[in-house]
Every structure is written in C-alpha cells, then in structure tokens.
Amino acid sequence: MRAETVHIRQMDRWDNPLDPTMSPEQVERILALDMFRNMDAGSFPALLSLPRLVLNETRLVEYQRGDLVVRAGDYGSSAFLVVRGNVAVILPPGLPAELLGRSAPKRKSLFQVLRQLWNDSRMPETSHYTSPTAGPGAITRSAGRSDSTRVTLANVDTLLSKQPSVILEAGDLFGEIGALGRFPRSVSVVATMDVEILEIRWQGLRDFRRYDAHFRDHLNQLYRERSLKAHLRETPVCRHLAQELLTDLEQAAISEVYGETDANNPFWRPQGESPSDRLAQEPMIVAEGQVLDGLVLIQSGFARISQKFNHGHRTVGFLGRNRMFGLSEALQQWRTGHPVPSQFSLRAIGYVQTLRLPYAILASHVLPHLAPEFAQAALTTRNGTVFEGLDREDVGLIEFLVEYHYINATAAMLINLDRCVRCDECVQACARAHDNNPRFLRKGRRHDAVMVATACMHCLDPVCMIGCPTGAIHRNERGGEVLINDRTCIGCGTCANSCPYGTILMVETRDAAGRYQHNQETGLPILKATKCDLCLEQWGGPACQRACPRHALLRANMWDTRNLRRWMGWR
Could you give the count of Cα atoms lying within 13 Å of 290 in the half-sphere of its Cβ? Predict the structure, then answer.
C-alpha cells in the first residue's frame, strides 16, 4: 500500500529571522545608522531588499557594563556594530582562560589511573554543576532572552587597567572577519558601559557586501588593516618575506568567497544524489585547463581537487586552511614565460573563502625569493594538490573522506573491521577512563573494511563551537582539541544540534548521591553535553586506541594520511 502524502509549505530563509519581535520602527532606526544610510538601496534585488535584509538578519542587543560581547577563541557567525556606548577590545595576551569560562585539562595522578582499574561504579557520570559561575571574577547570567546567556566580568575597571585595549565607539564594526571566514575570534570585546549593539548575522553581512560596493570596499579595508598581514604570514611562500614586500602583497591580494555554509553539511544532501550531480553543485574556483592568474590561498573551508576521467571527474585531493593552489603552474610560467593551464579543477565544498595573489606581483615579490628546494618540490610533487600519502588509485577512499567531510577530522576514530574481533576492549577502556561511561558509539559509516565510529573528531573547523552562550565548548589551548567545560555547560544543546556528525550527546545530570537534577523553576531535567575528550587527562593518549589488542582502532588525523596508510597496511 502506498503511504499517504501531505503537502506543506517548505520553510525558507525568511521564516527564521534573527529577532522575530523586531518592529518596523526599529528597522527604520537601523536604516538611519550611517552604515546603512550610506548603502545604495537601489543596488539590492527586490527579493533581497535592504529593509528586508535588515528585518531578517539583524537585531538590537543591549549589554550591561562588564558583559563579554565577544570571547577570544570562540567561533561566531555574527558581526557587531556599536550603536550606542563604548566597548573595549582586549589586545593580546588577553584575559585569563579561567575568566572566560574555560578550563585546562589536568593529568590524573598515578593513583587515580590505577583506581580506574577497580572502580566499577555503574552510576552514570555525575555533574559538577553547582552554581552559575563562569570563573573567578566572572558570572554567568541570563539576559532575558531564551537564547541569551551572558558572562559578566567583575571589577571591569581593574581588569582593563591591567590589559592593553582599544576602545570602539558608536559606528565601529567588529567581528566581521570571524563571521565571514569562520575563524576563531582573536580577541575578547567587553562592554565598558551599558551599550546597545546591532548584531548582524553572517548571511546578512554577506549580502550587504555582495550588493553594495561601498560596504564591500569598507569590509575589504578592515580586513586589510586587521587580518590580512597575519594570514600572509601563515602562508609558507610568504612567511619569510621582508615587511615592505608583504605590504605590497596586502594591497594586491584579492579576497573571494564561494558557496553557501548550509551546503557544507553532507547529511543534508538528497539521498540518491550521484557524484556528478554533487560536483556540479560545487562552485568552481579554478576549472581544469584554465590559465589561472596567480596563486589561490585557502583561508577557510575546504576545496576539492578533481581531474577529468573518462566522462566524469575523479577526486584526487583536497585543500584546507592555509593550503594553496596553482604554485606549480605559476613557477612554470615564471621560468618559461608562457602561461600554463591548470591540470586540475578546484571546487568549493560548501563555503570557502580564498585569497588570490595575482601573477604579476607573485612573479616580482614571491617567486624570486622561494628557497630552491621548496620551488623544486612544488614543481616535481605538486605539493598540496594530491592527497598526501595516498595514490590516485585510492579514489574510493578519497571520495569517501571528502564526501562525508571526514577531511575535517584531526582525530577520527577509525576501526578496521577485518582486524576487529569485537572484544569490546575499546569501549571498556573508554568507560574506565570516564567514570564508567563510554564517550563514543561503535557504529558509523563504512568504506570497505574501514568504519568511522561515532566519536568526536576534534574538527579543524568545529561548527559545534558556533553559538555556545557560555564558551563551555572550546579548544584546548595547547593541542587544539575540542573540549567541554563541565562547570560552565548550561545544557542548552546548541553544540549537539550544530555537530553534523552527531557525536555530542545531551545527558541528564546527577549529583554525587546519584539523584537526577531537575530545574527548580520548570521541573525539567538538567542536561549537559558530553563527548570524547581524547583522554587528555590520561597518560599515553586515547584509552580506546591503547586498549585494542589487534591494532584495529586508530585516532586518525586526516591530514596525516601516511600514518593512515601505515595503519591500514596497504603498502
């Protein structure tokens, strides 16, 4: 029997305004601000008119004196415009981590490690949730909105007197680079008085930049002033250049954006979609056979490298942040004087932000200063274009890793099912290390004998960190692992809902006596987020990997595929 169908209206962008309560009077007030008054409303298409974008993608937010508006290290999807009052940008070295609601993992003592062997408690892990305290000198408070929890610094004057800072006034924009590029915030911003701020969702920021040339130039200028130099310094071909050469490169570099963030999630793609259909949907950055004018630097996101094969394309590699494309062709052109077409295509997987250095300035400022061995390696091995450590015959594995975004992982849990004897030692070891509660599920997607288990992969681009109201989910300052601070997690579920791999679980909390904890006002259970912490408190690394007697489990960094190949024993 055929199942009954129902026809409903499909939701679109305009069904999810940033502030559902925004009034027409507020829209008029926002449009009167200098930033919007100077925009050319006529350059926006009718469906994306300036007032409609303001109504849907912005909201006015009030902060009290001492509130953290932006926290260093967080990933955010919004930029901020100061409407009234002043805020302070805390310059490096910045505020102490404990003041920002974070915690550094501490190694267990030898006695604690040994105690794990005979500790057989069957009670689910207890919570350390005791009070809404973010850290010494800071408190977490509700801001009166369902999605607004603030961290307020105590003694803000004393703190600011000890920290180098810059004051931003009404009309100043901040947070735009992190919002568009999905970079972690590099600085914290604190309200020095009661302030009113316009929050702008990145989708709105993108469209304002796309349709208004004046605003686009303004953003580009801010980017050049605040971040471009640091990005060039991180690029292998530029990091050794003299300051005057870097200054010229800053002026010549072209920032470009490809794709949409929403398409970044492979789990949202339609079932049954063919590889050729998926490739056709990915925005082209460089087409195979095209003469590229310069060098493409990936600033954020991931890009797929493919090559024509029979009647289609096959994936031969991928690029992530700080990787580059086109160096071999540029070197050949510089040596021979003839333009060289690209042998590969480069496509954006989801959202990609790039920086292009035109060939003219590349030839005069960069190529003459490359170390001979570096240039030779770029010519002979095409460094950065082929999936390092794997051959092009491994097309199936490369397609699998790229297709499901496992290339985002720095510690994916891989299990070789041909070696695994289902002894359960990995699960038991994880449970012993975490109060008898394993932090992963031994199931997941498969490619031949390799299974990617459902465990936190500690992503290069951790979208789970976007929107955490207290900063409880954060990167370990030393190794970059993604951790959750049990003391500041308020159980909102934002991280679990954002993780595209489903590796963060929301669990009910108990006190030390084993009693479930419920909210005294609503009566609902208090939840907390839990996931793999890569056993940072343990000596010797992840317990799951160390416990496997068959060497069937690997915590794999997808950017170290030579190690993956050794583990698989394919060569």
Answer: 15
